[in-house]
Design a protein that fits this description.
- This protein is α/β, with parallel strands linked by helices and 362 residues long.
- The protein has 11 helices and 13 strands.
- β3 and β4 form a beta hairpin.
- The chain is elongated.
């Protein structure tokens, strides 16, 4: 089988051309040409690259391949949310979710197969960690989604995929190098060209990597906080035992680029009787004082076997009012894709447990 180039960066593409006989003096130019065809136009066949000589196209095609990973299953929610179970080259599977709006949409992508963090309220955390995704596999999820939507060449406006959120399976900052490499490809203005202002990386609190992420990428930051006291957060997010709340918030206060125009998002799953009291809300606003921030209140999305329940609507509303009065936007997230296990925290998903007979091919 030929070696796959899909998802690699400009330098690797230039090196691939040199490997099939192009002079080193043309390596940079060839890398730029290939990058344009693959990430601006979405090419999956060298024969379509008409600005490249037929001879080079033939040599590239004999040595390299532009195939994507496969969609094993596609599910579409009653609310329009789409979830893809993507099968990787080694047979491992991850999930991507598209949350559409009228004229735009957010694509939620995964960074690991499984997860190591074992957050007690998160379905993904019950799935064993298998491995990190490569940068190519992370970028590949964006390419696949654009293929499905027919969103090539890269539009300058009116995008169906306007935002990227790294909030799928896995902890992005525990796969830092591959995540940053993938982000640079996704943000590159000569290719997929999604602005750093439209990209958000979510972390459960890998404190040593937070400042580095901001300095090297400038993307938005989301923190899976979910509790205001270490004893509670230790149970919900075991990583807190290594990086407690005080250290996490210190990293947020110094996050490069954070401002009122670029607020840090604190994700807060509302768990009945666990973290949803008025006192919790008051402590939350004290904790984040001085940080340009907003708080996303997420009604807990149940999954089979969980010990948690979602907070009552009135409790969530009262919590939001306290946070709002303190000067922080606190939207209550409307659950999307619950019927296909595509909502926040559900991405172990039924597709892992479904039999092959029950899966509906894309």
């Amino acid at each position: 089988m030929t070696k796959r180039l899909s998802g690699v960066d400009r330098d690797a593409l230039g090196a691939a051309a040199t490997a099939v006989g192009e002079p080193p003096t043309k390596q940079k130019m060839r890398g730029k040409q290939l990058f344009h065809w693959m990430y601006h136009r979405g090419a999956t066949d060298f024969d379509t690259m008409t600005s490249i000589s037929m001879d080079l196209r033939a040599r590239m095609k004999a040595a390299w391949d532009l195939r994507r990973d496969k969609i094993a299953t596609e599910q579409i929610s009653v609310d329009g949310t789409r979830k893809w179970l993507v099968e990787l080259e080694d047979g491992a599977k991850v999930e991507s979710v598209l949350i559409p709006e009228d004229d735009r949409g957010a694509l939620c992508i995964s960074t690991q197969v499984g997860c190591t963090l074992n957050c007690s309220f998160c379905h993904t955390g019950t799935q064993p960690w298998v491995r990190n995704l490569t940068a190519e596999e992370i970028v590949g999820q964006v390419l696949i989604a654009r293929d499905v939507l027919g969103e090539w060449p890269s539009p300058s406006e009116g995008r169906l995929i306007s935002n990227i959120v790294l909030m799928g399976m896995g902890e992005p900052l525990l796969n830092y190098d591959n995540v940053v490499k993938a982000l640079k490809i996704i943000m590159d203005p000569e290719g997929i060209s999604i602005s750093r202002r439209r990209i958000t990386v979510s972390t459960a609190g890998v404190v040593p990597m937070i400042g580095r992420l901001g300095a090297e990428t400038g993307v938005g930051l989301a923190i899976s906080l979910h509790a205001v006291r270490d004893d509670v957060r230790n149970e919900l997010v075991p990583l807190n035992r290594k990086h407690p709340i005080a250290d996490l918030l210190d990293a947020c206060r110094t996050y490069p680029g954070a401002s009122n125009a670029r607020r840090i998002t604190f994700e807060y799953a509302m768990l009945k009787g666990v973290n949803d009291s008025p006192q919790d809300a008051k402590e939350l606003v004290q904790l984040i004082a001085g940080i340009p921030a907003k708080v996303n209140l997420i009604p807990f999305n149940p999954w089979p076997g969980t010990i948690y329940q979602v907070s009552d609507d009135a409790t969530i509303a009262a919590f939001a009012e306290i946070v709002n009065k303190a000067g922080y936007a606190s939207p209550i997230r409307v659950p999307r894709g619950q019927d296909i296990s595509a909502a926040c925290g559900q991405l172990k998903s039924d597709s892992v447990r479904m039999s092959a007979k029950d899966r509906q091919p894309a």
